[in-house]
Design brief:
Layout: E1 6-8, H1 18-26, E2 31-34, H2 38-47, H3 54-60, H4 65-75, H5 99-117, E3 124-129, H6 136-145, E4 150-154, H7 161-169, E5 174-177, E6 190-193, H8 195-199, E7 210-215, H9 218-227, E8 234-238, H10 271-276, E9 281-284, H11 292-298, E10 303-306, H12 308-311, H13 320-331, E11 337-340, E12 350-353, H14 362-367, E13 379-382, E14 388-391, H15 397-402, H16 416-423, H17 462-469, E15 484-485, E16 490-491
Parallel strand pairs: 1-10, 2-3, 3-4, 4-7, 7-8, 8-9, 9-10
Antiparallel strand pairs: 5-6, 11-12, 13-14, 15-16
Helix pairs in contact: 1-5, 2-4, 2-5, 3-5, 4-5, 5-6, 6-7
Length: 493
């Protein structure tokens, strides 16, 4: 299979949606849609009215027509819901999710990939988080029904996913072991998905997508290459300057005076060991500037993955006002990203762009009433009676404590599940406690966005990003950053 030199990162919730992925794929590189919480995305887009008709066109191609009809009947609002009306909620993912939730998840992943692949023969990938385990199997099946070419996964150790892709491609049932806090020795819990049951008979044979593990160390790459349940086709080697969730620093956690995790020499991936595995790899984390592609190629990589530059281009899902603010901050040299060790309920460091009227604003964060009504980052735990319960450090504190959680785990936690949809204009409307604020994630390359904006313009396109990424290092760019290049990522001056 053709190996792209540039992979567009799969970011946030609907930041890298089908429109962005399709634009990048049409230009010969790998466009990637975010697979995170796509059930929420489809349900809310349908409630907004599907003004262009794209969602309904994709639903008409879904191979199990009665399932698509049920999703449409449940969530579609002709003309769109009133702006002051809250979104109707979809069910939360569970160990044994409702049939309606499973159907919505499969359909949503199909729709996103179908639209990303529509009208061209380029490659399309989908990105998932290993930490978001419960919807993984129906999500994979939906994406595969639409012919997805690559599956990318990080934020954990996804050793079971390659084998799951093998089974799903043959239409066979899959069982995925689920982490449950406090489980006793010998207790195991599984999420199960059977394509035959879903399809109401024989399941179709599907193309098995290429699997790329997103890793932050040679140790993890070696483990995935040698101990996965199926074949691994390559790696994205991501440094700590990349946006979204970062791998924690190796060793005891140390914080800078500003409160950010300190990364050191032990956190620099050993490229030589990864190269020795003989599998393709791409480098990620501050590779969104001229010359960085050539640098990656010189290190033996196939190419680079770039996220932040694409996250604020015209085709991305980020709301226009947030894009405008980010570009202006870059022009002024005031763009700042904070690596927050507490924000994400996953416990992984999470990068947040410091922007007004978002959850990175301390006043906005303090004013938000805690609520957990989407549930993608809930932790499963063993109750005293042996049953499985669900809790989240970002939910109302009294609820978390009642479920056996520790108070210190709630400090500084942000509702990623609600903040990310608000970033793309699909935040929940809350008349009593204030509408959900955006939570904007970006890598350190946020400072360099202005380089993509031509004189006299206020926006830039995915084509502008690709053009500049392919330029040599000595090309003149606007909004440059005086940074010292390390082997992977950047070291601020």
């Amino acid at each position: 299979m053709f190996q792209p030199r540039i992979i567009q990162g799969g970011m946030g919730v609907a930041v890298s949606g089908w429109s962005l992925a399709r634009a990048v794929s049409r230009m010969g590189q790998l466009g990637v849609v975010s697979g995170t919480a796509l059930a929420v995305v489809l349900a809310r887009r349908l409630q907004l009215g599907d003004s262009g008709g794209e969602l309904r066109r994709a639903l008409a191609h879904f191979p199990v027509a009665n399932v698509a009809d049920r999703v449409l009947a449940e969530f579609f609002v002709p003309g769109g819901k009133p702006a002051t009306t809250p979104f109707k909620l979809s069910a939360m993912p569970r160990l044994k999710s409702r049939t309606s939730m499973v159907e919505l998840t499969v359909v949503a992943n199909f729709v996103e990939v179908f639209l990303a692949k529509e009208g061209h023969d380029g490659l399309v990938g989908i990105n998932y988080l290993e930490k978001v385990q419960l919807p993984t199997l129906p999500s994979l099946f939906g994406a595969m029904l639409a012919g997805v070419d690559y599956v990318l996964m990080g934020a954990g150790i996804p050793r079971a996913i390659p084998g799951a892709l093998d089974l799903l491609s043959r239409g066979e049932a899959v069982h995925l072991r689920i982490d449950v806090e406090g489980a006793l020795p010998g207790e195991e819990h599984f999420s199960t998905f059977d394509p035959r049951c879903f399809c109401g008979g024989a399941a179709p044979a599907l193309k098995r997508p290429q699997f790329l593990g997103i890793v932050a160390s040679a140790t993890l790459a070696i483990a995935l290459a040698k101990k996965s349940s199926g074949s691994v086709e390559g790696f994205i080697v991501e440094g700590p300057t990349a946006g979204g969730h970062n791998a924690p620093p190796r060793g005891p956690l140390q914080l800078s005076p500003a409160g950010e995790p300190i990364y050191g020499s032990r956190d620099v991936p050993e490229i030589e060991k990864i190269r020795a595995l003989g599998l393709p790899f791409w480098l990620a984390g501050s590779f969104g500037r001229p010359g960085k592609l050539d640098e990656a190629l010189s290190m033996g990589a196939v190419g680079v993955q770039v996220g932040t530059a694409f996250a604020f281009c015209e085709e991305s899902g980020v709301s226009p006002e947030l894009k405008r603010q980010a570009i202006e901050l870059s022009r002024l040299g005031q763009a700042r990203v904070f690596t927050d060790p507490l924000a994400s309920p996953t416990g992984f460091p999470f990068k947040t762009a410091q922007m007004p009227h978002t959850l990175s604003d301390p006043e906005g964060y303090a004013a938000r009433t805690r609520i957990c009504d989407l549930g993608y980052l809930r932790h499963l735990y063993r109750k005293e009676n042996g049953a499985v319960g669900y809790r989240c450090p970002s939910e109302p504190i009294e609820d978390y404590l009642r479920k056996g959680g520790a108070l210190e785990q709630t400090v500084g936690r942000k509702c990623v599940c609600n903040g990310l949809p608000a970033t793309v204009g699909m935040g929940q409307v809350r008349a009593d406690s204030g509408d959900e604020l955006p939570l904007v994630t970006a890598g350190d390359d946020l400072a360099n966005l202005a380089q993509f904006v031509a004189p006299g313009r206020d926006t830039y396109s995915a084509a502008d990003v690709l053009r500049i990424l392919e330029q040599p290092v000595d090309s003149p760019i606007a909004g440059g950053c005086a940074c010292q290049v390390s082997r992977i990522g950047i070291i601020p001056p």
